[in-house]
Amino acid sequence: MTPVTNRPRWITWTGGGLIAYAVLFTLYTLLQPLGETGRLIVGDIVYIPSSLAAGVLSLLILRITDDRRLRWAWGLIGLGFISWAIADTLWAWDELVLGVLPESPHLTDIFYLLMYPLFFAGLLVYPTARWDRLSRTKLLLDVSVIAIAAGMFSWHSLIAPTLSAESDSPLGRIIEVAYPIADPILLWALLRVYFATPQAITRAPLVMLMIGIGFNLVADVWYALLSAHDLYYTGHIVDALWVIGSVIAAGAALAQYRALQSGWQPADTPASPLGIRRSQQLLPYVALVAAMLFLALNMYGDQPTLPQWGLLAGAGLITVLILIRQVITLSEYARLNAALAQQVEEVTRLNAQVQRANEELKEIDRLKSEFISNVSHDLRTPLTAILGYSELLLEESEAPLTPFQEESLRLIMGSGQRLLRLVDDLLDASRLEAGRFSLTPAEVAPAPLLRRLAREMQLQAEQKGLHLQTDVPEGLPTLRADGQRLAQVLTNLLSNAIKFTPAGGRVRLTGYVVERRDGVAKLLTKVADPLIPALPEGKWLVVCVQDTGMGIAPEELPHLFSRFYRAAEAQRRAIHGTGLGLYVSKAIVEAHGGHIGVESQPGQGSRFWFALPLQDGMAKPPSTKDGQKSQPGATAPPSGQPIRPVSPAPAPR
After folding, report:
1. What are φ and ψ of residue 510, in 5° steps?
2. Is the pTM above the cut of 0.70?
3. Which of 51, 167, 552, 569 could form a disulfide with 84 if both were Cys (CB 3.0 to 4.6 A apart)?
4. Picking from 186-195, 232-241, 380-389, 505-514, which range would have the lowest pLDDT averaged per residue?
């Protein structure tokens, strides 16, 4: 079957024609423009095209679906409408041609009554979602309660009076009783297929089919009531309900045909309890109340009559079914509560295991930090000696060094300095975790500090073939900060920029002042291509390190300032590093009450920046052991007094 996207023109024309047909006949029944003869002719013949169209269109679905349930459902429903059309044809022949009004038992009764089991069987096999046994039992109980309540009305108004009336033909009486009995049974099938189809997967064809057959049921009951009081005549408005019902059912067949052409397939999935309709939960109790009220209104006299006995039996049966439903519901609740208690117990047990594992991890983390701190201290002493003696040999050696000796000493110096930075980072990380990280603030002039650090990194940049540009204007205001720690941050950023930028690239260091007032940022220092980060209100010193390196993927940016995190590209290219430099830098900047961030695109370089407050001084952040962030703007302590903030949370910016 090939799905199509365009609606076939014949479906549109057929649907429009059926709607026009139903509207015209409804107007005819209201206006009666053709007189008595026209009323009989039109009233007897008009049913035939509508029911025949519904039957033919229903059978047409068999050509385009391979689903066995759908074929059986629409096939049986189509045969039901064709049986109805045959009965109407026989009725019209007798009344219009033979001039005889058919009375039961009659040949037409066979085809009229055959329609009910065909509809019932078609609705029974209509494909719905699969339900578990308990839910299916509740569904059948709910449907039965509603159908019995409808049957009580049918019994009192139609069945019991027919059984009590005198009749020359017992078979005719049985046939007359069969019609009002069949209506609640067909209602049962309609409700079952509607409730058995979860609301999430209900399709227009099913809803339209139920409405169409529902119209026919209403018309049947109305016709029976009118006939019981000799009020029915051909061309009555009730005839329009039969035609409208058949037209809507034909529209359902068209909608099903269109859905199958578009590739729709019946759902064959387990039904979720969440898909149960609210009407299913409410209607059985509404039916119970209605049945009891109907019983109360019709119970009079000292001795119950036949209609009253039937009402008592129906009300008793509804009560029993409701009680059974409640017992099943309580059993289900008990089962669900037991399952929930078991799950709660399991979750509690798993939570206890997780807590124990967390405690063990905390202890392991503490031992690891202690080990790193001890080892770092032990490594720092010999490293200092190695660097000192290497520098002494290079600068104050009495005998001249050979080129090989000088190059070897410089390699020793470079490797030792790199190892010393690694040890310092490990020490800082362990201090952060232990809450022993400290700052010693003093008045710092940022411009000389930035230029000095740029000169120190110049040689490293030139050795790699990079151009290191410095754009730090004079007159940058002083700030209270730990100069040594700020130098550590800037060294980390410059070192990373040089490390991740290929030969021939460019690294640019800028420093400038930004003021934000009333949500508007203003640049107070003239520099080229400044980055204006989103900062709180106040005056800020912004330091930016920009490179033309390989850049960073967007999904990695939130993790850059986490402990031991290294970008995937750096690992792929085997660029050395520990993943601690940015983590420590973030802690230092936030300990000063500042902010740090990055902008980057793969292949377009990166721009790291940090901002420090100028007006409000350095802030002492609150404890961030539980993930709180440092807050800028607090008053700094007196000069020279150390600040000991606890480690900022390693959560990425």
Report:
1. -130, 150
2. no
3. 51
4. 380-389
